[in-house]
Amino acid sequence: MTEKNMAQARHIVDALVRSRRSGIAATAALGGLALLAGLAYRSLRGGEPARAGAGPATPFDHIDVGEDEARTMLRAMIAATLADGIVDADERKRLDDAVAAAGVESDGRAWLEKELAEPFDVDDIAQQVNDPDTAARIYAAARLAIDPDTLQEREFLRMLADALDVPGEAADRLEAELTA
């Protein structure tokens, strides 16, 4: 994957999140990355709003999501999509549409096909994460990528949360917000 196409990971993740036209994603006026950052922030902090001066960035400052993190998000989203062993037609269309919207060229598409053929497992994903906020954003991306309607998908999310050290309460809050 060329440097140019690697820089498109943020755009692909953003497009995939925006394509979720149900629940919270449908009503969000924010970009997809900002939505993920906000969901993760609230899940970790129990819905506590950001305070002025509380840190270097607000939870909606999607600039904090760099390309490396966006690639990890994309890998987690792909792994979640493949958790039940298949990529159905709707999932594939969402992925293809997101790649097209991001303007990814042929070598970027080849990278994506390789990821689909050999997805990262939860341990590979967790090795890319160094702090609780990033872990929550990665988990939120994986959760938003799927409707966990199979045992395999639910088990994948549980294993991912465990590997990322996402507290159970945070995963539960995220689930409640996404299904509200």
TrEMBL record:
Domain of life: Bacteria
Transmembrane helix listed as a keyword: yes
CDD domains for the chain: terB_like_YebE (cd07178)
Keywords: Membrane, Transmembrane, Transmembrane helix
Signal peptide interval: none
UniProt entry tagged with the keyword Membrane: yes
A Pfam family it matches: DUF533
Transmembrane portions of the chain: 23-41
Name of this chain's protein: Tellurite resistance TerB family protein
Organism: Methylobacterium iners
